[in-house]
Design brief:
binds pyridoxal-5'-phosphate
C-alpha cells in the first residue's frame, strides 16, 4: 500500500494528533465534507494511562480499548478523564459482567446474536441501556469478526427488539490488502448498509455513526463517509 504513512518515532503526542487531524481534514476536503463530522477515537491498547491522559488533554473526545483486562487495569488511573469510553474489541460472553462494571459509553463490536441476548439480560438486571455498534465483516476475511454484509439488516432488526441495547452505528475493519480499491470497497459497503437500514425505518435503531478507518487507511474511510476513525499507532507509535 502506498499511503504516505509511517508510524511516528517521536513521543510528541500533540504533534501526532495534529498530524492525524490534518489527514482527516485533507480527506474531507477532497469530498466536500466538514471535518467536524468525523470524530477521532484513539485506540489505546498497550498505551500507558499517562500518555492517554496527555492525548485527551489535546481535545480528544473518545478512546477505545480492546481487552477487558487492560480496560480494568487502567480504569482507576483514567477515572478523572472526561471523554467517551468505547470498547472496540471482540467480547467473549463470559466477560460481559466485567465490561459492564467498567461503565463504558459504547460497545462497538456487537457481532453475534448470542452476545446481544446475553448483554441484554445483564443490562436488564441493572436497568440500563447500552449504545452499541454492529460490527460487520465487510472484507469477509475468515480471521475477522463481524456479521456478514448480507446478514446485517436481519441482524439489526432482531437486535432492535432487545430493549436494553440501542444500535447507534456500524463498525468495520478494512481489508488487509495492497489494493486500495478493495479497502475502499469495504468502507463503501458499510455506508450502503447504513442507507439500507435507514430506509427500513426500524424502531429503536438510529445508525448515526460509521466507525471505520485506522492509521493506515483513514483517508479512504473518511472519503467513503466515516463519522469516526479509530487511530492507535498513528498517534502513539508502533506496538511491540
Ligand atoms: C488497534 C485498533 C485500531 C487502531 O489501529 P492502528 O493501526 O494502530 O491505528 C482500530 N480499531 C481496532 C478495532 C483496533 O483494535
Amino acid at each position: 500500500m502506498d499511503f504516505s504513512f509511517d508510524p511516528p518515532h517521536t513521543q510528541d503526542i500533540a504533534t501526532q494528533i495534529k498530524n492525524i487531524e490534518q489527514r482527516i481534514a485533507s480527506a474531507c476536503a477532497m469530498v466536500g465534507r466538514d471535518p467536524k463530522e468525523v470524530t477521532l477515537l484513539l485506540a489505546t491498547k498497550t498505551v500507558e494511562p499517562e500518555r492517554i491522559i496527555e492525548a485527551v488533554a489535546c481535545g480528544i473526545k473518545a478512546i477505545g480499548e480492546n481487552r477487558i483486562q487492560e480496560l480494568k487495569a487502567k480504569k482507576e488511573a483514567l477515572a478523572e478523564v472526561t471523554c467517551q469510553r468505547h470498547f472496540i474489541g471482540h467480547l467473549q460472553s463470559n466477560k460481559i459482567k466485567e465490561l459492564l462494571l467498567c461503565q463504558i459509553d459504547c460497545f462497538q463490536a456487537l457481532d453475534r446474536w448470542s452476545l446481544a441476548e446475553k448483554l441484554n439480560v445483564f443490562l436488564a438486571k441493572k436497568n440500563k441501556t447500552l449504545p452499541v455498534f454492529v460490527e460487520v465483516n465487510t472484507s469477509r476475511e475468515p480471521s475477522k469478526w463481524g456479521v456478514l454484509p448480507e446478514d446485517t439488516l436481519d441482524f439489526v432488526k432482531r437486535v432492535s427488539h432487545l430493549e436494553h441495547l440501542r444500535i447507534q452505528g456500524l463498525m468495520t475493519i478494512g481489508a488487509l490488502s495492497d489494493d486500495e480499491s478493495v479497502i475502499r470497497g469495504c468502507f463503501a459497503t458499510l455506508r450502503m448498509l447504513q442507507e439500507t437500514i435507514r430506509e427500513a425505518g426500524i424502531d429503536n435503531v438510529d445508525i448515526r455513526e460509521l466507525s471505520m478507518g485506522m492509521s493506515q487507511d483513514l483517508e479512504l474511510a473518511v472519503q467513503e463517509g466515516a463519522t469516526m476513525v479509530r487511530v492507535g499507532s498513528g498517534v502513539f507509535g508502533g506496538r511491540s
